[in-house]
Amino acid sequence: MLFISTDEGSSFQRQSISFTPDTLVFHPKEEDKLLAYCKEGMLFASTDLGRKWTLLQERVTKDKVF
């Protein structure tokens, strides 16, 4: 589960997700875009601040996510 804020932390919404993220990486300029790596070796992407996720790649190692 993720907690998402669209008002700089004044309030949060709970967002269920179908995987357990190990690492979250935010885009340096586009704050709605992020990557999520899970220990099962899968890499997911979101373009809407974590509301919907797309599987990008399987068999990914953590040291290859940046």
UniProtKB/TrEMBL annotation:
Residue intervals of the Sortilin N-terminal domain: 2-62
InterPro entries registered for this protein in UniProt: Sortilin_N (IPR031778), VPS10-sortilin (IPR050310), WD40/YVTN_repeat-like_dom_sf (IPR015943)
This protein's GO CC annotations: membrane
Keyword DNA damage: no
Annotated Pfam families: Sortilin-Vps10 (PF15902)
Keyword annotations: Repeat
Record has Repeat as a keyword: yes
Protein name as catalogued: Sortilin N-terminal domain-containing protein
Organism: Pogonophryne albipinna
